Every structure is written in C-alpha cells, then in structure tokens.
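Why does this matter for the project? Reviewers at the last site visit asked to see concrete outputs rather than summary tables. In response, this paragraph embeds two records directly. Each consists of the residue sequence and, immediately after it, the corresponding structure tokens. Nothing has been edited or filtered.
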Amino acid sequence: GTLYLVMDYLEGQDLGSLLEDEKRLDLATIARFICDLAMALDVAHADGLVHRDIKPSNVMIVDRDNEKHAVLMDFGITKLKNANTLTGTGAIGTIGYMAPEQIIDARTVDIYADIYALGVLTYEMLLGERPFTGGAGQVMFAHIQQPPPDPRDKDSSIPRSIAKAIMTALAKDPSERFPSAGAFAEILSAKVDG
C-alpha cells in the first residue's frame, strides 16, 4: 500500500555539472534543452502535476542520436492538482529557482511556478549565473519584490526577443507568464531558428 516512484537509470551528467564545466551554453543548445524540458512539463501539467523543483541538478543531459538532450528528473516534491500536501504552507523547493507565489505559500502553486523556474534555468544557462544572487533571505526577497533583471544588461549580444521571453517567464504575476512551458520553448526556438 506504499506509493513510490520508479525512474529509469540514465547515462549522462546533470546540467549542474555541465554548467560548472561550460559556465554558459549557446542559444541553440539552450533552446533544445528547454524544448525537451517543456515537453516533459506540458505532459506533467496536463496530468495535474507541478514539479516545484526545477534546477540544474534535476536535469540529466543524455546523448540521443548524436545530440545532447535534457531529461527532467526528481519528481519527489511534485504537487498534485487539488490534492492536500504534506508540506504545509512553507516554501518547498530550491530558493534560487522558486516563483514568488511558491515562496509565499507552496500549497497554492500551479504550472506557472514551473514556468518561472524554467525562466531562471534559461537565464542561468545563458549567462552562467542566476538572476538573483546573495544569501537565502536576499534571494527570497528579490524573487518576491525585485523586477526580473534584463539579461541584456549582463550581455548586450543577447537578442532582445530572447531577453524579453526570459523576462516574461520571470514575471512576478503568474498571469503575465507564458500560458505553458511549451509556449516559452516555442518562442526561444523560433528566435534561435529565425
């Protein structure tokens, strides 16, 4: 009567290790990884699941058809839609990637918290650092109160459309973010391909 998760064993390295080695990734690689992650999230979201802990160490990079792809891992703190949670009202997840509403009340999060975290992850892959840094309290305050930083302030060579897409994913108000992870990935891919 005990519920448990069974996950495939994957050969590869986690995205955190890759970023330690590479620091920054090129736009084409970022777009491919975000598309992979967005597909997984859209399936999970359609089934009423919210991951709540998207971060580099929960993304495995694997080789498929001579190309690197991203696989979303660790659904250990996933929130089920309309289900009571054992986590109480406190923040659950990893502070550096948490949406404002997730910090305030983990019970109320929905798919938009995952889209926010995907925006943080994209920013980090692109610039080699997260949008908000400092101690835990500083980062929590920044997620809740500070406007998302424009990636172009750190690197003016980043296309405006990519910067705008990231800032949309990082909007404080969930209703101002993309309607789905796939919509965010589609914008990134279109800008890279176009």
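We now turn to the second protein, recorded in exactly the same manner.
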Amino acid sequence: SSYITANMKVIDHGVGNTNNQHDAGNIFSGNIAIKIHGSYSASLPQKPFTFHTLASNGIDDSDVAWFNMPGEHLWILQATYNDKSFVRNTLMFDLFRQMGHYATNSHYCEVVLNGSYEGIYFICEKSWRC
C-alpha cells in the first residue's frame, strides 16, 4: 500500500495522569505520511502502521525525538494483537539490551484513528526491525 498524509498528535501527561484524545498534542503535533505495515499482520483486526514525520512544508522528512528515544523520522506503530500480555517484544528488547547489545527503542501508546479507539500499540524506530 502507499503512504497517505495525515495529521498526528501525541499526548502524554505522565504516569498516573489521564490522556484525552481531545487534548492538545503536548509531545508532537504535526504532519505524517502513514501506511499499513506488514503482510500477515496487516490481515489481523488490529493493523500495524509505518509512518514518517514530515517537516512543516509537508514534504521533507523531519526527525522527532520522543519518549527518551533518539531523533528519527521513520517509525512503526506495532500492533499488540498477537501479544495479549503486552510484554513479549519489550521483554526481548530489554533482555537483549541487558546483555550489552543494541535493541530497538520502543514505548507503549494508545492509538485513536479518525475518532475510533484502535487499542494499545508500541511505537518503535523503523530503522531497526521491531
């Protein structure tokens, strides 16, 4: 599938605080190009997405740093449909990191798409496989 442009906002009021989809994007608010990611996983009810952040001109890529992750413009919103425990991928990343290796940075988030709640995802760098 091909990318479509969209507007995205990221809201994070911190641990223990409520985030509301109508709040202003306090972490990020801007344009992205997004598409469904994967082959088998794209057939599941919770779709994974690949996206890249765009500069204010809506064309050029723009690196964004969030959730203590380094600046990047290519990202994956990895669906958790096949991981009901919400720990499988992040546990492996953490273990690999503790063994002294680089592991993909990731952060859990909730996704609302066109006003519809899509569930819990984790966002990670696309430059590394996650």
